[in-house]
Specification:
CATH architecture of the largest domain in chain B: 3-Layer(bba) Sandwich
Number of helices of chain B: 18
Structural class of chain A: alpha+beta
Strand content of chain B: 15-25%
Oligomer: heterodimer
Shape of chain B: globular
Number of strands of chain B: 20
Strand content of chain A: 5-15%
Number of domains of chain A: 1
Distance between the termini of chain A: 37 Å
Largest sheet of chain B: 8 strands, mixed
CATH class of the largest domain in chain B: Alpha Beta
Order of helices and strands of chain A: EHEEHEHHH
Structural class of chain B: alpha+beta
Largest interface: A-B, 40 and 49 residues
Shape of chain A: globular
Number of domains of chain B: 3
Distance between the termini of chain B: 60 Å
Number of helices of chain A: 5
CATH topology of the largest domain in chain B: FAD/NAD(P)-binding domain
CATH topology of chain A: Alpha-Beta Plaits
CATH class of chain A: Alpha Beta
Strand order of the largest sheet of chain A: 1-4
């Protein structure tokens, strides 16, 4: 489920409001970081995270909300260890990244040397 | 009525495509190519909506020389319910139309992603659907996102002439007049939590049935996918490579081969899960498999990595998640490979249509269903465009349909259709009665659903987002009732449909179970197309 939007990274572009297929977010009154208004409609599809241009969003892997003391709510840790933005990096989306076009690039972006055949 | 409802967005177009997944985008492209103006309306956002965008997907791409053998194998797996004409068109259309998209996206599949039935090109869902949205826009089709449809519009002759709905982020109504309509809203997984399926509440099935289309194969709707427990990441490929154990570490079953059919291995796994917790470890893999899996399915390893699991070495708890008609094969009955529903002006494509002609009683899981979206979407878009362009003007739609769950009136407090969804899920989600069926539990479930349907007819639905939620509840409830009716009628076991009280396959029942009607569903049996099934 969507758990966090980094206020430090968010640029208030509201793209997540537009691309979320289940309409989870609302615009914040007066602009700024969007509000996770309908978390129970989140389907854990990672689509918002995949489109966020500044790697500000974190979707936890579980279908139910994470407790407050969960690692999935620890924004500082998730930012520090590179988890924020890791799906975009894997797809090759975002500034300075390129989507893989060949099998070799696909393995490389997954951190693999090759198919080990 | 709010001011926004009195002032709806009104659009006129040649072809209206309802939905925003692969079948909808293929339909939009084909209709544009045929010279039609196209409006595509999606409940969510075309490009992220549905089960394809959030997954990785393979396509079933069969070279011409292998098609006869592939069709025969499909029919064998489908228990004699496939249709050679649909199989031919699906293989032909997907082979020709998908390849340019594959070339645009790049990276060919490696060895693991091939099988005896045809080449499979694997693509990350987000990448594929982003590309499809780009193509639809470049082709000149108009897209309305966050525009769920509430019902179809008909003219005085009974022709479908558009649809109406809500712009849910603006609390404003929309109404589209069209010469032809393609329903591609996906299947129905009853909000089980299956990956990407939250929007797939069977809306298109209900809208089609309300104007007189039939449903077919709704008994083949009880496919359960395996996911890491608590997550939404059903992946059949992984689970072909696993060893399964129970709580005590005893091996339950190995490699349930032939994923997609209710074969011995799967049934053993399901029974083991009913008895207690079930665990898997993907240790039946070679280093080459492991690299392929990690490289080619980004989202699955996103989940494993975030859960802190090394699935190749550590055993992890797994659970079955209902994937309903999405990986089943039931849906709107179509009369030809263009997806014509038999209702003038209305076509069904993708998971909205019954895929029995392609996969029969088995699951279309993954590759066949993906190729089906290419073919059925394209053929429906072309046919709807021809139909629309054949008449210069159309009579204005006279009558709206789609009344279930949207009676007038405001709602206070707890939204009552939440209770409707709870009832539908209580009947449909548990594996014990739904995967292993019998007359008693089916009839009991149906009585409960019928009583809820009568209540739903009286519920006030509110406005805007609330109306959408109410219609979604109505659609899931309608689908659940069709499933129970169909499953009761088929007094045998065939493919996904498993009856404890009729464990054998009855050759006299090799045919289709149709259901007509919304308030009072009526079942009809028709024989299979093939005279002699493939053995």
């Amino acid at each position: 489920m969507i758990e966090l939007i980094s206020a430090e990274r968010c640029i208030g572009c509201d793209l997540c409001i537009r691309v979320c297929p289940t309409d989870v977010f609302d615009a914040a009154a007066g602009g700024g970081v969007p509000v996770i208004a309908r978390q129970d409609d989140c389907q854990t599809c990672f689509m918002c995270e995949s489109r966020c241009p500044v790697d500000a969003m974190y979707v936890a892997p579980l279908r139910t909300p994470a407790p407050a003391d969960s690692v999935h709510r620890d924004l500082d840790r998730l930012a520090a260890d590179g988890t924020l933005g890791s799906y975009r990096a894997r797809l090759g989306w975002g500034h300075g990244r390129r989507p893989p076009r060949t099998s070799e690039q696909l393995y490389a972006i997954a951190g693999l040397t090759g198919p080990e055949r | 009525m709010t001011p926004r409802e009195r002032d709806p967005l009104r659009v006129t177009t040649d072809v209206l495509v309802v939905g925003g997944g692969p079948a909808a985008t293929w339909a939009a492209l084909a209709a544009r190519a045929a010279g039609a103006e196209v409006l595509l309306v999606d409940k969510g956002y075309c490009g992220t909506s549905g089960v394809t965008a959030s997954a990785g997907t393979t396509h079933w791409l069969v070279p011409p020389k292998h098609r006869a053998a592939a069709a025969a194998e499909r029919d064998r797996r489908g228990a004699g319910l496939t249709d050679p004409a649909y199989l031919d068109r699906t293989m032909d259309q997907s082979w020709r139309r998908y390849q340019p998209v594959a070339a645009a996206i790049g990276y060919p599949a490696t060895g693991y992603f091939r099988d005896v039935l045809g080449e499979r090109h694997l693509v990350q869902g987000p990448v594929y659907m982003k590309e499809m949205r780009r193509r639809v826009r470049r082709a000149g089709a108009r897209i309305l996102d966050h525009a769920p449809a509430l019902g179809l519009l008909r003219d005085g002759d009974g022709q479908v002439r558009g649809a109406r709905g809500v712009l849910r982020q603006e609390d404003r109504a929309w109404s589209a007049t069209a010469g032809g309509v393609v329903l591609a809203t996906g299947g129905c997984a009853f909000r089980s939590g299956a990956l990407g399926s939250h929007v797939n509440t069977g809306d298109g099935l209900l809208m089609a049935a309300e104007v007189g289309a039939a449903l077919s194969g709704m008994e083949f709707s009880n496919y359960y996918g395996l996911s890491p427990a608590g997550a939404a990441m059903e992946k059949n490929l992984y689970f072909r490579t696993a060893t399964y154990t129970d709580a005590d570490g005893a091996v339950v079953a190995e490699d349930p081969d032939e994923i997609g059919a209710m074969v011995t291995g799967r049934v053993a796994l399901m029974r083991a899960r009913l008895a207690g917790p079930l665990y898997a470890v993907l240790d039946r893999t070679t280093p080459a498999h492991r690299a392929d899996l990690r490289a080619q399915t980004a989202n699955a390893f996103l989940v494993f990595d975030r859960l802190g699991i090394d699935p190749f070495r550590q055993r992890f708890e797994v659970d079955f998640v209902l994937e309903g008609t999405i990986r089943g094969s039931g849906g709107v009955r179509t009369l030809d490979p263009s997806g014509w529903t038999g209702v003038p002006g209305l076509w069904a494509a993708g998971d909205t249509a019954s895929r029995e002609p392609l996969v029969g009683a088995s699951s279309g899981a993954g590759a066949p269903n993906s190729s089906w979206t290419v073919a059925s979407g394209s053929l429906a878009g072309s046919a709807a465009a021809r139909h629309a362009l054949a008449s210069a003007t159309w009579p204005a739609p006279a009558a709206g349909t789609g009344t279930a769950g949207v009676s007038a009136g405001r709602t206070r407090g707890r939204r009552p259709w939440r209770d409707v969804v709870d009832t539908v899920q209580a009947v449909m989600l548990p594996m014990a009665p739904n995967a292993f069926r019998s007359a008693g539990t089916l009839a009991a479930g149906l009585r409960r659903l019928d009583a809820t349907w009568r209540e739903l007819r009286e519920l006030p639905a509110g406005t805007g987002r609330q109306q959408v939620e109410a219609r979604e509840a109505a659609a899931m409830l309608a689908a659940a009732r069709w499933v129970q009716h169909s499953a009761l009628a088929r007094t045998e076991s065939r493919g996904l449909h498993r009856r404890l009280d009729h464990p054998g396959t009855d050759s006299a029942q090799r045919g289709h179970v149709l259901v007509h009607g919304v308030d009072h569903p009526v079942v009809q049996r028709i024989p299979a197309i093939r005279k002699d099934p493939v053995r």
